[in-house]
Amino acid sequence: IFSVxxxxxxxxxxxxxxxxxxxxxxxxxxxxxxxxVLNGTFEKIMPWEKSxxxxxxxxxxxxxxxxxxxxxxxxRWPYVPWWDLWKCKEIRRKMNEKKSQAQK
Length: 104
Prior knowledge:
This is Fatty acid desaturase domain-containing protein. A hairpin with a 2-residue loop joins strand 1 and strand 2. This protein starts with 5 loop residues before the first helix and ends with a helix. The chain has one domain. 59% of the residues lie in helices and 4% in strands. The chain has 4 helices and 2 strands, in the order H-E-E-H-H-H. The longest helix is centred in the first third of the chain and has 28 residues, at 6-33.
């Protein structure tokens, strides 16, 4: 294929697959679900309410992992497709604003 050795193509494809898997695991699974340390020990139960979402804007979130970092929103509204998770993030932001105004 275009005079590139097949071994180089296979290695390139393997490296890309490995890098994308590590990125999805780190940003999409570990970061949002990492347990909170209390008194030097990890919590044993991780309910979905404690999952975390990033605070980046929606374009960076899209480029990072297709909004995979909007994890709280994903667990709160699991039926929403990934391309609409940023809308859920906006809904959550507005809900938090209303809650903070009501507490004043």
